[in-house]
Design brief:
Length: about 475
């Protein structure tokens, strides 16, 4: 199953004059509108599908290349498997209670069902991609943290089938594990391998065996999206500030939007966070599914599809950060579970002490509030001094990106993941971030959008190639940073 391109002429992926990079599309199934609670996961409804604008983007770059072949790199998180809640009517597999409420497990057969549903709901996107590839252009899918299930070969074949490509056209499409070298001058990677909360610990051996079922090992960020964001539909998972709020802000959002739809939101949050903690620790403890007799073949295959050498693959893997799952205490702090457990344990101990004292003295039950008021100030002080490191670690360090460029012998490094557009020259290496197309909104009512529909365009100059960030505005594109200056 390693080679799914067995018919037709070989396509040379090592050379490219024109390259377009987009990332973080987060394609997902269409959320049905709830007439009672229309704001529930409003960001997932068809109202905010951008398939038509993506078609305009492909038509624009096709025209811009003036008939030459284009290399389109879809740089990670193209599909959002973690936000999928679709359950088939008559599944051929067992579906647990947890899966019905938080989405299907990352198993091959279930991942096939999910990607088929995504492609079914995004027919215009599929038609646009098919048109683009039929014109002779190439497409490279880089696997990100939210589409780790693309590691399954049958899922890749489902995408080929969904795009309705001929055997020869399938050779113009490639899937790479985590990085890709374009034209020997540009390193393209999603960037989650530098984020401890979202790192795929071992893309060479991404699978684990769970109760005789082969699954993709998921990081903490994926479990958080599945178990927390999928059950709290008034928060947008594409914008971290939706979750990173103060207690008064949470209370205001609850009474304005959630009180009627989710009156037991605290219970939903608590059991979801406990489930996240358990699945993250358990997944981190599982041994990867690997075969020592074929591991070198696997590395060679990754190197070939990434236009790299086996040495580059091994050295790039050494840049991976340690997953946050190795420090459960840090995960508990991110989920606020440390404070929750501290409150629950303190209340339990205080009630037990009061009950023991009541056996000897006739005390009112309200005496329990005295130790509560005594312990409240140090608890508040403790809580106020805990900071979230999700945003801090999400961005790769400049040293790491420079090292990655040295390993791959490239002068330009492009990544995504952070959803923040970037273009700067540090030392001798050009750093760019392609931004996001995801339905990212700051508010529940989806009126304050953060996505800019940006992409990176690389074209030939006299001596080398030039990279620039563009933003789609209607059916045309304009330089992103110049647009900011004009605004």
């Amino acid at each position: 199953m390693e080679n799914i391109y067995n018919i037709g002429e070989e396509v040379d992926f090592t050379k490219a004059n024109f390259t377009a990079i987009v990332s973080d599309l987060h394609l997902c199934e269409a959320e049905p509108v709830d007439p009672d609670f229309p704001l529930w996961k409003k960001y997932k409804t068809r109202e905010f599908f951008f398939d038509h604008q993506f078609r305009q983007f492909l038509e624009y770059i096709d025209k811009k290349a003036s008939g030459e072949k284009i290399e389109l790199v879809l740089n990670g998180d193209v599909f959002d498997f973690d936000s999928m809640m679709f359950i088939p009517l008559n599944p051929t597999f067992k579906v647990s209670w947890l899966e019905r409420h938080r989405g299907l497990e990352p198993e091959e057969e279930k991942s096939q069902v999910k990607v088929r549903k995504i492609l079914e709901d995004h027919q215009e996107w599929c038609e646009a991609m098919r048109w683009f590839i039929e014109k002779g252009h190439r497409a490279v899918f880089v696997i990100g943290n939210h589409d780790l299930e693309l590691h399954f070969k049958k899922v890749q074949i489902e995408i080929m089938n969904g795009l309705n490509l001929s055997p020869q056209e399938r050779k113009q499409v490639r899937f790479v594990e985590w990085f890709y070298i374009s034209n020997k001058d540009t390193l393209i990677e999603h960037g989650n391998q530098y984020d401890p909360y979202c790192v795929c610990d071992d893309p060479v051996n991404p699978f684990v065996v769970d109760y005789n079922q082969v699954q993709v090992r998921l990081p903490f960020g994926d479990w958080a999206c599945r178990y927390l964001a999928n059950g709290m539909g008034f928060f947008n998972p594409h914008v971290e500030t939706n979750f990173d709020m103060t207690v008064p802000q949470y209370i205001a959002v609850f009474f304005r939007y959630m009180a009627r739809a989710q009156p037991l939101i605290l219970w939903t949050w608590f059991w979801s966070c406990v489930a996240i903690l358990w699945r993250t620790i358990y997944s981190n403890m599982q041994r990867p599914l690997s075969d020592p007799l074929t591991v070198e073949d696997r590395v060679e295959s990754i190197a070939k599809r990434s236009n790299a050498t086996t040495r580059m693959v091994r050295e790039m893997k050494e840049l991976f950060v340690v997953p946050a799952a190795s420090t459960p205490r840090r995960i508990m702090k991110e989920l606020w579970l440390d404070r929750a457990f501290l409150v629950l344990i303190s209340l339990f101990v205080m009630f037990q002490i009061i009950n023991i004292i009541k056996l000897i003295y006739d005390l009112s039950f309200f005496w329990v509030f005295i130790p509560i008021f005594i312990l409240l100030p140090p608890f508040v002080l403790y809580a106020r001094n805990i900071d979230s490191y999700v945003q801090y670690y999400k961005k790769p360090s400049e040293r790491t990106l420079t090292t990655a460029g040295m390993i791959t012998k490239t002068s330009r490094v492009i990544y995504g993941h952070t959803h923040e557009v970037r273009h700067e020259l540090i030392g001798g290496v050009e750093h760019l971030n392609s931004g996001t197309w995801s339905p990212a909104f700051e508010d529940v009512e989806c009126t304050k959008s953060e996505d800019a529909k940006t992409f990176i365009w690389i074209e030939p100059q006299k001596e080398d190639r030039r990279a620039q960030v563009f933003q789609m505005v209607g059916d045309q594109a304009q330089p992103f940073f110049r647009a900011l200056e004009d605004a």
